[in-house]
Amino acid sequence: MSICNNIKHLKASLPEGVTLVAVSKYHPKEAILEAYNAGQRIFGESRAQELVAKEKSLPADIEWHFIGQLQTNKVKEIASFIHTIHSIDSLKLINETEKQAAKQNRIIRILLEIHLAQEATKSGFTPEECKNLLSTLSLKDYPHLQIDGLMTMATNTENTEQIHQEFRRLRILFEELKNSYFQNSANFTVLSMGMSADYPIAISEGSNMIRIGSKIFEVRE
Ligand SMILES: *Cc1c(COP(=O)(O)O)cnc(C)c1O
Questions:
Q1: How far apart are CA 50 and CA 108, in angstroms?
Q2: What pTM did the predictor assign?
Q3: Burial of residue 83, with CB atoms counted within 10 A of its CB: 0-12 exposed, 13-18 middle, 19 or more buried
Q4: Given ligand 1 and candidates 69, 87, 195, which is best to mutate, with the most ligand atoms within 8 Å of its CB?
Q5: Which domain holds residue 198?
Q6: By CB distance 3.0 to 4.6 Å, which of 3, 123, 161, 215 could disulfide with 196?
Q7: 3-state DSSP call for residue 116?
Q8: pLDDT above 70 as % of the chain
């Protein structure tokens, strides 16, 4: 199987309305170009430095998504081109992203990362923190941000029922927040959940954006 075949098979298997983010972290630009030539345009990276280098040398119509933990001082490095940041996990990061997007005179889309997994290493707001944040945030103070939805990573476990439950909790939270804070808005439509190991479960629980790395880029001989 080649990267091109992996992309084609994966895309053909996805229900309509599910957006594929090809997670190209650690993979060279040649691999990204192969996926690009197979028609893929949305790529996800998790380190600012690596992303900046790749962005410079790859086609300009790629839609870049940032999916890794983002330090506040790195936002300015990616602000001129980043399409969506999936990993917004603090008010400080929200404020800095607004500031840098304003400097670039553009809008950056963000997803609020929610911590549901039973692993302390994963980051994100708890559901309570997220509700508190949205109830105090005045969206008109953030004219250069578009809050598109939520993102999570499930626990890395063999227990598929647990994974189902975590994704289900995100979808329920998403609907609750949409009804409370985005009722009259066309925004807040993205539920980013599901990686190579668990994306079928995520889709069955309502995901409409999956982030797939190894299943695309790890080519078996
Ligand atoms: C690496 C990564 C992915 C992709 O993981 P795979 O298991 O390679 O599909 C998705 N989301 C995040 C946040 C990641 O860091």
A1: 19
A2: 0.97
A3: middle
A4: 195
A5: 3-217
A6: 215
A7: coil
A8: 99
